[in-house]
Structure formats: structure tokens, C-alpha cells
Specification:
This protein is of the alpha/beta class and 399 residues long. The protein has helices at 6-13, 35-45, 63-77, 95-118, 121-130, 136-149, 160-169, 182-185, 210-217, 221-231, 244-254, 257-263, 277-285, 305-314, 320-336, 364-367; strands at residues 18-21, 30-34, 81-86, 153-155, 175-177, 190-193, 205-209, 359-362, 380-382, 388-390, 395-398. The strands form 3 sheets. The chain has a 7-stranded mixed beta sheet, with helices on both faces. A two-stranded parallel ribbon has the order 8-11. A two-stranded antiparallel ribbon has the order 9-10.
Length: 399
């Protein structure tokens, strides 16, 4: 579930914290991806019609492998360096939420049986998707595939999103990609939605910046966590009648959940019995993740060509020609991703508190498209992707 209604709350009350970005703008960026969320999407979408799913000759589902293989290649071809993070043991506080999900899948299974008996295709399509569950086998299959592709995998001690956020905060990755908004509650400095959507949807990536979230909402990080707990999270029930907007007003007025509870109209709002909001807060502030000195090393290696052919073609019935061509794409993409981002060439070195004027050498071909460029005092140069990098006034020499 993530944080209920958080996207809309931010869109309405902190619009500058979110911006649309092109998929290609993340060239040479390291991105931590919530693996289970991606696998779940693949199982629902890839090769699925009603109850029919993509399988190999043995009848084993391969939708997750097809989705993970093709989507990861798309990332690599864009010069993105993905690292997939898998869930570990869920915290005890989440078991209630997991039990609810199990019950919903059981109900959906019954509804699906009825729909099949009636031949109701629309209901079959709807309820079959609600029965999908990511299993240990799905995860193990994808871990093996990613290893053969040379893409790093991290097995989180507990919540994958918490570990993703920790990698982001420590600077190991540029951003976290998921569809659940609680990556922000765990403190990810940059968060991406829709990065893993298929290109056919043509949906831009939505980037959220945590510092701007807090600035526009005028909250501290602790207050933002309390806001998310009040809005509704995976760790505890919310107070009935309090949605995101009301929660924001109450946090701004009282500053914390404790102060809100002291001043809340108990007749109007029913507080859950034994409400574990303090434990939920602790899980967001101090999640079980690898300590900084124990964070796994992230390495992007060349693909294991023979291993990929054996696993995908011989074991899972993939077309050998398509796999061979895909391997060539991976090799070409990894060669391409060794190039640096353009702004790295213009980034001043951190040498002290006094800025140093630099001479920047720009080829004439680069300046010929900018007739209004003042060579003696350049403030910005536009990149190919349309983003503008600010440059402190410097002497420009055209070659």
C-alpha cells in the first residue's frame, strides 16, 4: 500500500517537489529499484490474458523473467545503472498488513472461481490480477537472471524500500525507484515513480525531491513521518476520518502525533485500540538496514553469455535468436554507460571556500547553435537532454 494518498497530497500542497523527467535523463545514474514491486507488475502485465500466463514447456510461469529481462535491458540501453533490492524478513508490525493482503487474495480467488463459472471475461480479468502473489521462486529466478546479466542484487535484511533509501542517503545510488511512496518516509533524498513502466505507455518519470517536500510542506522529517502514519501506512491502522489533508493540518497545528492525541476530539475521531504509532515511527526512522560500513558493494559486470543462454533458452524456453540479440544489446549498453554525464566536465572541484575562476574549453561546434552566447561570462550551457547546468562566470575559450 505504501502511504495512502501521499502523491495527491504532495501534488496539491508541495507541487514543486515533483517534476516530470525523461527516461533518458538518468543516463549514467545508479538507481536502486524495489525488486518485488517490479516483479509484481511483470506478473500482472507480461503475457497475461485472464487466467492465462506466459509459461515454459514445463508449465512454469516465465512472465517475471521476460519482464525483468526486457525492462532491465531498456534501463541499460538508456545508460542507467540499476541495482535491484529484494525484501528480507518483514518487521512484526507489518504482519497484520500482510494478513490483510492474504485475505484479499483469498476473496479474489473465490470471486475468480465464480466469474469463470459464469464466463464473465471482464470479471475474470479483474479478479485474476488480484490473486497474483510474488513467491520466493519468482524472486530466486530473477536474482539468478540479474546475476547472469551482470546487474547487482542486494538482499535487504528487512524492507527493500528501507534499504533502497539507505543506499540513496549514503550516496551509493542517485535515487530510489518504486511505486510505493513510503520510500520518501524512509528518507530517500530522490524518489522516482514510473521508471519501470513499459515504454509503450509513454508515461514520463515522476521525480520527487525530499528536501523540497519538507520545505514546501514546512515540516521537519519527524513531522513528515508522523504525517505519513496519520495518512495511513503499512505498519498500523490510521484514525478513521483523518485523511492526508486533515493529517497535514493537524501536524502543522500541533507538531506531533502525541500533541494531536491530547487535543483530538475523541467523540468525532476514533483512535484504534493499542495504536502502535510509536513503533511505526521507529521503523521509519531506524529501519533494519545494513550499516554504512557493511553496505554491499555494487558492481556492474559483463554478462555471462553462456549462462544466460542455458538459463533462458534451455531451461525456460526463450527464443535463442532473441536472447543472443539481447546479449549483444547488454554488451553494447554497458560499453556506452562507461561514458560520463556531461555536467561532470563542468562541475567545479571542491578546493575551498573561495571559488576559483576556470577556463572552459568549448568546441566551436558546440557554440555554433548558441548565437547569443557571451564567451566572456557564460552562466549556463544546455545539455542534449534539455537540462541546464549553471556555470559560475568563467573565461571561455572556443577551439
Amino acid at each position: 500500500m505504501g502511504i495512502k494518498g501521499l502523491t495527491k497530497l504532495l501534488a496539491d500542497n508541495a507541487p514543486s517537489c515533483m517534476k516530470e523527467q525523461k527516461f533518458e535523463s538518468y543516463f549514467n545514474r545508479k538507481i536502486a529499484i524495489d525488486a518485488s514491486m517490479s516483479i509484481y507488475q511483470f506478473l500482472i502485465v507480461v503475457g497475461r490474458t485472464g487466467t492465462e500466463m506466459l509459461t515454459n514447456e514445463a508449465g512454469e510461469v516465465t512472465s517475471h523473467l521476460q519482464g525483468m529481462f526486457s525492462r532491465t535491458i531498456r534501463l541499460l540501453e538508456a545508460g542507467i545503472k540499476p541495482v535491484y533490492v529484494f525484501d528480507g524478513q518483514p518487521p512484526d508490525l507489518k504482519k497484520q498488513e500482510l494478513a490483510k493482503r492474504y485475505a484479499k487474495r483469498a476473496d479474489a480467488t473465490e470471486d475468480l472461481t465464480d466469474a469463470i463459472a459464469k464466463g464473465d471475461k471482464e470479471s475474470i480479468e479483474k479478479f485474476s490480477k488480484r490473486t497474483v502473489k510474488v513467491t520466493k521462486q519468482h524472486n530466486d529466478d530473477c536474482k539468478k537472471l540479474l546475476g547472469l546479466m551482470g546487474v547487482p542484487v542486494v538482499e535487504a535484511p528487512s524492507e527493500a524500500e528501507a534499504q533502497c533509501a539507505a543506499l540513496c542517503k549514503s550516496g551509493k545510488v542517485y535515487a530510489v525507484a518504486s511505486e510505493d511512496m513510503d520510500s520518501l518516509t524512509f528518507g530517500a533524498s530522490k524518489f522516482l515513480r514510473h521508471l519501470m513502466d513499459p515504454s509503450s505507455k509513454k508515461i514520463p518519470v515522476m521525480e520527487f525531491e525530499m528536501s523540497k517536500v519538507l520545505e514546501e510542506l514546512n515540516l521537519t522529517m519527524d513531522q513528515f513521518i508522523d504525517l505519513c502514519i496519520l495518512s495511513g501506512c503499512d505498519y498500523c491502522e490510521s484514525i478513521k476520518g483523518i485523511g492526508g489533508l486533515t493529517a497535514l493540518k493537524l501536524i502543522r497545528q500541533h507538531g506531533s502525533i502525541e500533541n494531536i492525541l491530547e487535543n483530538l476530539n475523541k467523540e468525532r475521531y476514533q483512535i484504534p485500540d493499542e495504536w502502535p504509532y510509536q513503533e511505526a515511527r521507529r521503523l521509519f526512522k531506524e529501519p533494519e538496514v545494513y550499516p554504512g560500513n557493511e553496505e554491499p558493494e555494487l558492481k556492474w559486470n559483463p554478462p555471462d553469455e553462456e549462462g544466460l543462454v542455458n538459463f533462458l533458452v534451455k531451461e525456460n524456453g526463450f527464443n535463442v535468436d532473441r536472447v543472443t540479440k539481447a546479449i549483444e544489446k547488454i554488451k553494447a549498453a554497458k560499453s556506452k554507460s562507461s561514458q560520463g554525464r556531461l555536467e561532470a566536465f563542468f562541475k567545479p572541484a571542491a578546493t575551498g571556500s573561495v571559488p576559483i575562476k576556470r577556463k572552459i574549453f568549448i568546441p566551436i561546434a558546440m557554440t555554433s547553435h548558441q548565437p547569443n552566447l557571451k564567451y566572456s561570462n557564460v552562466e549556463s550551457i544546455e545539455e542534449n537532454d534539455g537540462k541546464t547546468n549553471r556555470i559560475e562566470p568563467s573565461t571561455i575559450i572556443c577551439l
